[in-house]
């Protein structure tokens, strides 16, 4: 026998991370990060554009201011010379010598039209080259482009204005070292790049860090040539700038030179059509960007991590919640096995997934578990259930589904190739005897089994079949197990046949009533009759034992009860009409009908329809119906009584009604079951029937004994003081017509 530990217990499932959606969150975050970095990059570009433009403007403005300043100084000098304050060059030089330094001039020079003259620092100048250039413009102070100094090796720029000295036209020149402008063009920008002062032909007058050595080098050519390889369209951009500068426009653009990208801004100085051109390489952005990107990626990662953690947290708590719901829905808290829902769901799957021919469904019931509960208490009985469930699961083959599907019923489904009878026998023996703590408990177990057929799919039907099998043994002392067999299969088929034609039988009036008379023991006169049903089917009469249990199961009995009730009322009405006489008729009320709320209202309606007084009718309610825990029995009985019906307790002695309950019931008659006259030791006074007689006397209700078949029984029943007798001794159940004759004779 297989005693290995099984895996049928429903364990806490490990939490599954839903990688996919966590991944989705992650990817979305990464995409957002990329988008963000792109955005930052854009911002940085805009930022650099803005910066370079501002820088260029500032440089141009400063240059302009400083040149304007120097120009006005020259203007002032010429004005005072023109006013005739000075007679000689020396006087002029002397007067302004001190101011020169403040304006960054290195020297003053005064030349005539031939280019001859002197300088303020004592040099003689002869035939100054291109002297005409300085005499061309007379109205304004002229500022020359770079030219080599005549007295030093420096590049210089010259501010000049023509004036009259002693009636001779001369030119006053103030010389400035070109390198002085450099301070204004200033420091190199960030990284590679720089600032250039150019004229409108692109000739570089100054560059901030002296890259362009050759005199009068052209900035455009320099740029284009310096960076190779440079694509044609990039060179084009330089040409565009050249054209724009020619047209006195300003602008900003970026251009890819070699491997570097440069940002360029060109700005008018507003002097001599000079331009300040500022360039910056994207190195600076790259550095800035790298830092930014690193910090944003860091930030994104942290956010990402947080979000992922949150996602995981939400996911886990969701699963926890689901798990809780799952437990409530599927797990039996006492045994930790699955419950009925679990069994049905998973059992159905089990039926489908394997096609082998050796599947069994087995149900185990503890007989009289309620009594055990009363005896040992719930805590201990829960222990019993737990151990029984575990044992069951351990003793059936592996790969089983074992559940507790109701109070004291367990079900298991498994596949087994060995001898099933042996297995069930072992199971029975094992489950009967449990050890709980130090206590040996003997259980009264009933096992029903069904071998699953290939076509079987409906787990409910299979459960029913195993119940049916189990019902074959329940109640017997030497109970064991029962494997659903051909006999049951035939019964089932029979049931199905009956079920398929019962409705039709009802409308075809196949159900009829026969009456069994009841006789007073005192005078042997008629005491009434019990209405009993018969089914006339295909020329045969089917006794109630063949169909009533089934109708009770499928509730068709409720319809049938009403039908019988109405037929009896009809008969009573006919007899009243025909004989001006109505015997009391007992009608059986099924347990199922009795448990239906307000069933009596329907009966009252029928009575009214046929003008029958309820007191002519005695309702037989079985003792077992009166111990139904689910309804308020007393209330129902009182309701019946209130309508005027008589009430008998049928099959008395077979149930377990308590004396205290009986005392409160508004009943008229106790109907003692046939078994007591069968069993009765008719000579003994101590038998049960005597006891029942004692109770009924105490309660003040009448008694009737049914199943009296012979004279001996009749005399015994009479002797113990029973009021009424029903049985073959006086009459079997007879047809309506025969009963009419009978009551006319015995009334
Ligand atoms: P019950 O209510 O206990 O009915 C008494 C049964 O005992 C009847 O069987 C009757 O024929 C039988 N009987 C009466 N005297 C003797 C006797 O001396 N010896 C023997 N051996 N039997 C005797 P029946 O008619 O076969 O009915 C069986 C059961 O079917 C009834 O038991 C009742 O529970 C049920 N039943 C019958 N008719 C109806 C009905 O119309 N409605 C409902 N709900 N149940 C009915
Ligand atoms: Ca009865
Ligand atoms: Ca009975």
Write a structural description.
This protein has 747 residues and is α+β, with helices and mostly antiparallel strands. It contains 23 helices and 28 strands. The strands form 5 sheets. The chain has an 8-stranded mixed beta barrel with strand order 20-21-23-24-25-26-27-28, surrounded by 5 helices. Strands 1, 2, 3, 4, 5, 6 and 7 form a 7-stranded antiparallel β-sheet that branches. Strand 20 and strand 21 form a beta hairpin. The N terminus is likely disordered. One calcium ion binds next to loops.
What would a concise description of this structure say?
By secondary structure, the chain is α+β, with helices and mostly antiparallel strands.
Query: Which strand-content bin applies to the residues?
Result: 15-25%
Number of strands: 28
Flag low-confidence runs: 1-8
Outline, from the CA principal axes? Answer: rod-shaped
Largest sheet: 8 strands, mixed, barrel
Question: What would the average pLDDT be, to the nearest integer?
Answer: 88
Oligomer: single chain
> Any ligands, ions or cofactors bound here, and which?
ligand C2E, calcium ion
Distance between the terminal alpha carbons, to the nearest Å? 70 Å
How many helices? The count is 23
